[in-house]
Amino acid sequence: MTEPQRLGLMSYGIYLPPDFETAERISARSGLDPQQLFAEWGIEKKIIPGPQDQPVSMAVKAAREALRRAENLRPEEIDVVIWTGEEYKDYIAQTASIRIQEEVGAYQAWAFDLIGQGVTSLVGLRIAQDLMFGDPSVRTVLLAGGTRNLDLVDYANPDTRWMLAASASGTAMVLRRGHPQNRLLATAFLVDPELADEVYVPGGGTVHPFGLETLSPEMTHFQVNHPEGISRYLSSRMPGRLIEVVQKAMAQAGFTGEAPDYLALRHLPPPERRQVIAALGIRGENSDTLSDVGHHGPNDVILSLDRAIQRGVVQAGSRVVLAAAGIGFTYAAACIQWG
């Protein structure tokens, strides 16, 4: 890909609500020991939203921060706004990207929403790249999304304990054609379609429309069709698929058999996380556990990247891989040359 066609990350923004929930509090609600929460699920504490922290409003705050950090960029220069948060947002059937477009003043843009569960931010990178490559009029793209799927997690349900780390946040990225810094080198995706209907919220869709009979916790929170099978999958299959998608992205970027300098990996339980970084040959300090902020779905990779930059782990020339996974089950990775 030639330099004018290649895109770079101009800036990013993050919004984290100020409140958090400790492992002790989660323990009281879930019946699990705090030490068990950390050892098995990687949870010290997690971010929780306040009454004003809706998915779209959090994404708007992150988008405004990203625009503030993108020097000399006016909102009118944004060509496309894409929602890259979770499917669960402020309202049913809402086009969140249009709300973000108005709130940030991107009046010359067009907008649409993506739904990719935990990998949407990385799908957004690929879509932005393809838009720029296929349409010369698209020069600047804003990706923004929020998450508060923790509302959909029943703390007392033993089948969804692996979702207890769910947290709340907003993130945004500004991407520009030909931007010379933080260049997107490659993206990679994998899907296990046989698990498409294993994890979902039963109530509120066309199969079980809203009504009095869909107001029970079993209908308004995540449920798992085959708990034992999903438990085995998460501990054995998911780490391997994450390893595979990272290696695929590195190979497509021209680094076959090499390890990234930093891995911005989604939140994982410690055993699975150790398996991934060991297989990829990554030192512990070159990937963040996110154990003190929780799991933020598609926002995990941006949070991890920011923390690495703040710690000085990611510097000019670093090869960074963002790696995510989501229910479905779906996997994605993006390789960025930082600086």
Any descriptors?
single chain, 339 residues, alpha/beta, Peroxisomal Thiolase, Chain A, domain 1, 2 domains, five-stranded mixed sheet, four-stranded mixed sheet, globular
Describe the structure in your own words:
With about 350 residues, the chain is α/β, with parallel strands linked by helices. It folds into two domains: about 5-180, 3-Layer(aba) Sandwich (Peroxisomal Thiolase, Chain A, domain 1); about 185-335, Thiolase/Chalcone synthase (Peroxisomal Thiolase, Chain A, domain 1), CATH 3.40.47. Helix content is about 30%, strand content about 20%. It contains nine helices and 13 strands. The chain has helices at about 25-30, 35-40, 55-70, 95-105, 120-135, 215-220, 225-250, 270-280, 300-310, and strands at about 5-15, 20, 45, 80-85, 110-115, 140-145, 170-175, 185-190, 200, 225, 260-265, 320-325, 330-335. Strands 1-7-6-4-5 form a five-stranded mixed β-sheet, sandwiched between helices. Strands 8-13-12-11 form a four-stranded mixed β-sheet, with helices on both faces. α7 packs parallel to α8 (about 270-280). The longest helix has 26 residues, at about 225-250. It starts with 6 loop residues before the first strand and ends with a strand. The model has no long low-confidence stretch (mean pLDDT about 95).
Strand order of the largest sheet: 1-7-6-4-5
Helix content: 25-40%
Any idea of the CATH topology of the largest domain?
A: Peroxisomal Thiolase, Chain A, domain 1
Number of E-state strands: 13
